Amino acid sequence: METKESVNNPTELETFLPQDGTNTNGISTTKYKITKKNDLEAAVTEFDPFKARKLEHPVSNADTLMHLLKASLGTGILSMPAAFAASGLLLGIFATVGVAIICTHCSYILVICAHELYKKTGKTSMSFADVAEEACNRGPKWTRGLGAVARKFILISLFVTYFATCSCYTVLIAKNFNSVAIDYRGEAMNERLSIALLLVPLLFLSYVPNLKYLAPVSMVANVFMAVGLGITFYYLVNDIPPVESREMVVDLTKFPIFFSITVFAIEAIGVVMPLENNMKTPQSFVGICGVLNQGMSGVTLVYILIGFFGYLKFGPDVQGSVTLDLTPGEIPAQIVKILIGLAVFCTFGLQFYVCLDIAWNGIKDKCQKFETVANYGMRTILVIICVLLAVAVPAITPFVGLIGAFCFSILGLIVPVFIEVVVFWEKGFGKYNWKIVKNVIVIITGLLALIFGSKSAIDDIIAMYK
Questions:
Q1: Rounded to whole angstroms, how far apart are CA atoms 174 and 169?
Q2: Which of 18, 352, 393, 414 is deepest in the core (most CB within 10 A)?
Q3: What are the tens digits of pLDDT across the range 255-275?
């Protein structure tokens, strides 16, 4: 949130020429040098964006991994048994691995394209929207008028996606706490009232100023989620029916439901660039053993285990959140619901950071005289609207599926491969243009998820209100 644009975004002259950054008598002086036999272009290519990056609150690799795990291990994992119920045990395993590979790859190429553009522009950090805009502006002729449009599309789509996601989180927190309340009160609290009571705690969480201070919150959330999932897993493997009692592959007409839920669960494209921008060593984010691959490998394994055994235990009637299927009245089940509720509550802060960052960047230039008041006023208004939306529509699964199918299939799959094509248009796409073939496959996958997943989710929403 509180980035220093004057530091991270040098002036046009400073990005045009390399600097030696000397300091004389406490006064910074800049000497511009031309290297490689006075070849200006060669000198500019020596710019190292990672060494030039200066952050007020740099985030370590470990903290970034915690944030990534928390962003991916959100409410979606609790819906994985429902996803497997729409695919079958065998198909669910292989399809989850496939979805994870595609989603991780798209996040990977987004960061790779950003690193390529850092060197071309002289910038040291970029948002998702910045990457799309610069890719168009510096791409082939047919994209150079699309930069501003691409930027606005990304910002609006990200905001809507994560804002709706946070509303779903609010509903899930209330449902878990309400489920525990039933055991002690004998009846459920009014669902909308329980959601409204979360307003004040969520306001305090939204007031955390930046990702550095959210790291401990993410760590606590990971602990809560790990313990909650551990107890849940015990329930799932206790007295499970034989594997033969469940279908290996269900009716393929239900597969779009699996795909949309799984994409929603795994996809974390909105937090990829904010995490990379705040890293002390951003080059460590990518690579075979980079932070991204480390985090997503563990996440995929956990998703498969919960989805497989959740469907095996509860069958095709498993609920949208598997914690709601646990034996009511038992202390361990109540502990799980409380821990999962608290973990999702902590996750709200990280997911909502994306919305806050977009909104603040859109209004901060108009609020320089009263910056602090405007910042916290904006946070307050957005949280209130988010909670009111959850109060108005207290449902989970259909909206999770719709968000996954419509929003994440576009942002997480289609847009990154489009950016890759534009950025590497002049360099080429590898032997036999294999990158183009790969990107066509990803785009087709994204379009199928968009069309069939959205249709299925909309049908479920209509049926729910009928």
A1: 9
A2: 352
A3: 878 887 888 788 778 778 888
